[in-house]
């Protein structure tokens, strides 16, 4: 089924928005997000590995030809360093490792080089935004006192380690190791990492902590850096398990109805709200269970299972059986969105991602059932003639479509669905680590960095 879904999403993108970043499936035209500046083709680059894995050979070939001829980084564009890294660098790296086609390696390294000026700050903590022509960087104007964002500068590690590996140029890995060093030197309130860090002063901004937006993939990359290093990156490992310990103590709570959730922490006060983005953490806890200190393995799996259950409830308690952007545990509700501007669903993957990890790590059939419910809901409410669209209010009787087919729907949501219903030996976890946009990167063996590259 996910293959049919991918075909529908891809064919319509190709028909109506080929070469542009994303598709507007209702108005049947291109959609450009300013996150990528005028770098084009986000959907193509994000989808390459999904096409490859699903054995959509014709489509993969067309996509590759587009990359060869048209993917151009010599543009005057201000881009989000994080978004371009996870989608474009990550997408190109995976396409290279899966297919062995040199063009993807070349383009990934070329793009990586364009991103390097982002690190020209007093601390080496990169800017959020970078003009890839002039090399001038800056931060989001809304971010606390000119800060960089934890989930942005903390989500470069996996890709940059691979860029050094593939180019022979150590500079990429040095940049991300320096981020680690800066973080390790800082005092952390209650052992937690605030979402904001000023790249000039090297001091934290506001003490807001989140395992959802602004924080999320920083934690994910600590764990995955350790796994991707064939478990040699002890620093990443320690930082991850220490962080989880602090998160458990200060952010994880159980509702009176028995649902475990991860709240947001604001200078010591809890906001009892959990984002759809935070739902990825179920999969993360389960993936990290194996390496958890002493007797904690079962506990981390259990934590993953509880987060998966809570996130499933957030879907099940809506009319459309698709989860809202954020749901609350206060004011008499549990796992329900109460604010109008938190009721949307934009084809995000995190809940399905967690089902996939839980399935692989426990083989409890309920995760496939829950995944299937999501497929039915997507088909019923998000599928339109011209592709797949997000929904403005998942509690409503009728769909109000947002008219965007996000590129991560093809790279993540559909890939994780496909993996959920595949055998465990397709991209096995011993050999592959998924970047935060679901692009698989091979584990770098300690004895031989190259031999495993083409493991499938
Ligand atoms: C994706 O770009 C990545 O999963 C990122 O980590 C978070 N946001 C979207 C999907 O929701």
Automatic annotation (TrEMBL):
Q: Name one GO molecular function term.
A: calcium ion binding
Q: Which cofactor does it need?
A: Ca(2+)
For this entry, list what GO says about its biological process: carbohydrate metabolic process
Looking at its record, which EC class is this enzyme?
hydrolase
Q: Where in the cell is it found?
A: Endomembrane system
**InterPro entries of this UniProt entry?**
6hp_glycosidase-like_sf (IPR012341), Glyco_hydro_47 (IPR001382), Glycosyl_Hydrolase_47 (IPR050749), Seven-hairpin_glycosidases (IPR036026)
Alphabetical keyword list: Calcium, Disulfide bond, Glycosidase, Hydrolase, Membrane, Metal-binding, Signal-anchor, Transmembrane
Q: What superkingdom does the record give?
A: Eukaryota
EC assignment: the record states 3.2.1.-
* Annotated pathway: Protein modification; protein glycosylation
Q: Which reaction does it catalyse?
A: N(4)-(alpha-D-Man-(1->2)-alpha-D-Man-(1->2)-alpha-D-Man-(1->3)-[alpha-D-Man-(1->3)-[alpha-D-Man-(1->2)-alpha-D-Man-(1->6)]-alpha-D-Man-(1->6)]-beta-D-Man-(1->4)-beta-D-GlcNAc-(1->4)-beta-D-GlcNAc)-L-asparaginyl-[protein] (N-glucan mannose isomer 8A1,2,3B1,3) + 3 H2O = N(4)-(alpha-D-Man-(1->3)-[alpha-D-Man-(1->3)-[alpha-D-Man-(1->6)]-alpha-D-Man-(1->6)]-beta-D-Man-(1->4)-beta-D-GlcNAc-(1->4)-beta-D-GlcNAc)-L-asparaginyl-[protein] (N-glucan mannose isomer 5A1,2) + 3 beta-D-mannose; N(4)-(alpha-D-Man-(1->2)-alpha-D-Man-(1->2)-alpha-D-Man-(1->3)-[alpha-D-Man-(1->2)-alpha-D-Man-(1->3)-[alpha-D-Man-(1->2)-alpha-D-Man-(1->6)]-alpha-D-Man-(1->6)]-beta-D-Man-(1->4)-beta-D-GlcNAc-(1->4)-beta-D-GlcNAc)-L-asparaginyl-[protein] (N-glucan mannose isomer 9A1,2,3B1,2,3) + 4 H2O = N(4)-(alpha-D-Man-(1->3)-[alpha-D-Man-(1->3)-[alpha-D-Man-(1->6)]-alpha-D-Man-(1->6)]-beta-D-Man-(1->4)-beta-D-GlcNAc-(1->4)-beta-D-GlcNAc)-L-asparaginyl-[protein] (N-glucan mannose isomer 5A1,2) + 4 beta-D-mannose
One of the Pfam families matching this protein, by short name: Glyco_hydro_47
Positions contributing to Ca(2+) binding? 436
The membrane topology of this protein is: Single-pass type II membrane protein
Report whether Phosphoprotein shows up as a keyword of the record. Answer: no
What the entry lists under PANTHER family is as follows:
MANNOSYL-OLIGOSACCHARIDE 1,2-ALPHA-MANNOSIDASE IA, MANNOSYL-OLIGOSACCHARIDE ALPHA-1,2-MANNOSIDASE-RELATED
Main role? Involved in the maturation of Asn-linked oligosaccharides. Progressively trim alpha-1,2-linked mannose residues from Man(9)GlcNAc(2) to produce Man(5)GlcNAc(2).
> Which family does the similarity line name?
Belongs to the glycosyl hydrolase 47 family.
Protein name, entry field: alpha-1,2-Mannosidase
């Amino acid at each position: 089924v996910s293959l049919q879904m991918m075909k529908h999403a891809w064919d319509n993108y190709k028909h109506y928005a080929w070469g542009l970043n994303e598709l507007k499936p209702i108005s049947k035209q291109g959609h450009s997000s300013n996150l990528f500046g005028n770098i084009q083709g986000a959907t193509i680059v994000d989808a390459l590995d999904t096409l490859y894995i699903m054995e959509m050979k014709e489509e993969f070939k067309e996509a590759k030809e587009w990359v060869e001829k048209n993917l151009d980084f010599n543009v005057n564009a201000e881009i989000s360093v994080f978004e371009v890294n996870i989608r474009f660098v990550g997408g190109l790296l995976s396409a290279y490792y899966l297919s062995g086609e040199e063009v993807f390696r070349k383009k990934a390294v070329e793009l990586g080089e364009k991103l390097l000026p982002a690190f020209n700050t007093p601390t080496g903590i990169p800017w959020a935004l970078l003009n890839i022509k002039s090399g001038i960087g800056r931060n989001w104007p809304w971010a606390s006192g000119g800060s960089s964002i934890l989930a942005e500068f903390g989500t470069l590690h996996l890709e940059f380690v691979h860029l050094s590996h593939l180019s022979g140029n150590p500079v990429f890995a040095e940049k991300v190791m320096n981020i680690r060093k800066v973080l390790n030197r800082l005092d952390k309130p209650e052992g937690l990492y605030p979402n904001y860090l000023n790249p000039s002063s090297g001091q934290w901004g506001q003490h807001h902590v989140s395992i959802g937006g602004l924080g999320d993939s920083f934690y994910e990359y600590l764990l995955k850096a350790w796994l991707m290093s064939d478990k040699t990156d002890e620093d990443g490992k320690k930082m991850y398990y220490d962080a989880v310990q602090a998160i458990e103590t200060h952010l994880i709570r159980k509702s009176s109805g028995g649902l475990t959730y991860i709240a947001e922490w604001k200078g010591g006060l809890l906001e009892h709200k959990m984002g759809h983005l935070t739902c990825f953490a179920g999969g993360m806890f389960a993936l990290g269970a194996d390496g958890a200190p002493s007797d904690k393995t079962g506990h981390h799996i259990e934590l993953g299972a509880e987060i998966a259950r809570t996130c499933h409830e957030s879907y099940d308690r809506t009319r459309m059986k698709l989860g809202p952007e954020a749901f609350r545990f206060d004011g008499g509700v549990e796992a329900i969105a109460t604010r109008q501007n938190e009721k949307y669903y934009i084809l995000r993957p995190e809940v399905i991602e967690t089902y996939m990890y839980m399935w692989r790590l426990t083989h409890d059939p309920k995760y496939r059932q829950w995944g299937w419910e999501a497929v039915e809901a997507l088909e019923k409410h998000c599928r339109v003639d011209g592709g797949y669209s997000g929904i403005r209010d998942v509690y409503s009787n009728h769909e109000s479509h947002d008219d965007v087919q996000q590129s991560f729907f093809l790279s993540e949501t559909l890939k994780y669905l496909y993996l959920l219903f595949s055998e465990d030996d397709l991209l096995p976890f011993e050999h592959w680590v998924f970047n935060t946009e679901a692009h698989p990167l091979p584990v770098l063996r300690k004895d031989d960095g190259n031999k495993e590259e083409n493991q499938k």
